[in-house]
Design brief:
By secondary structure, this protein is mainly alpha-helical. It is 47% helix and 6% strand. It is built from twelve helices and ten strands. Helix 2 runs parallel beside helix 4 and helix 8 runs antiparallel to helix 9. The termini are far apart.
Amino acid sequence: MTVHDRNLLLERARLLAGWMLRNQVTDRFDANRGRSIRFYDADTGEKVLTGNWMTGSFLCGLLAMWKRTGEEQYLRGAEFAGRYILSLQVMDRDDPHFGAIREITPQSIEFAPRDATSAAWGLVWLAEATGQEIYLRGARLFGDWLVEKGMYNGWPLYAVYMDPSMENFYSRGSFQSGAGLFLHDLFLLTGDQRYVERGLNPIARIYRDDFITESGQLVLERDPFTNRITSPKPGEDPTEHQHALNDDFGGAMMIAASRLFGDDSYIRKAALFARWLASVQDEDGGFAGGRHPSAAPVGGMLCRDIGTILGEPGLIECADRALGKVLATQFLDTGDPCLDGGVKGRYEGSRPDIGGKRCVNMRTSAYSLMFLLKSESDLKDIWLGIHNRPFEDHRWKGTHGLVW
């Protein structure tokens, strides 16, 4: 079998989505209902459940499986995940963080706006799939908080603490760029232009001009007030940093910006990064000797999308190698229900001396599910899908059928 075998890809996607569902908490009497495995290591026995952003990420993967197969189990699992995200949202109108989404549990006092964005992103796509107002309201409340209170000078804040005695983080990280795509998708669903004017537009422009170099490598962090580069440091190997390779959907955001604004400068810059990524890919399809497993599915999706749009076979080949890496690192027939179907991911536990060899992480697994499905078929109206319906101004559709 090859990575181009569609039957194989769909079969592996089913196994991966099955891992998510099998390990999802569904008991009505358990406040964790909706969460699944964030991280599990078979050799140390450590297991942690998903917080806001990983819940949102696997939610979107399950929705894509539902759209691909029509099987209700995936939609139900996505709704369980969405309800957990709603339980994290600040709903006190007197709270200055009204609309924000807490990081891990309803008791958390912190959240990273980029993490919370992935949670709200899940609500956007759940609202699109179900038409239910409860999910759309949650997504809009967070989008409103983000553009009104969660950004400084056109870029999301790094971390927010809800305890007034603790100071926020303001540093600009390249990984925050993907927040622009959430705001793009929210605009398409709601028609509220604020999400473009105060969200996608400045984020895309800043990412293009300040974070993607002419060599294609990313500037990873800048001081928000001076714009001084703070990472990577001079002489430092950028591949030591995860987000040098996993851009957290900044490139996907640039594709959307290029299309919406009719400006190919955005996709040209994203293509520089994709080409650089392909140039540093390992022979087995991974990156940095496997130290950053999530780079394979995220980088693979970006290279396939840009390679398809711009007609660059080299990027398609990079995507195929990355897909081979994902297939090779998916756990199969181990007899451990917490492993089987998941994809090998970063070890996050306290025993690196013995952990990490048989370890799954939702970051890599959720992104791998999308990578498998996007490689298997041209699905429409899914998270990160380049085949989604583009924005079309109603002006060009003709007059509304007005009665009153």
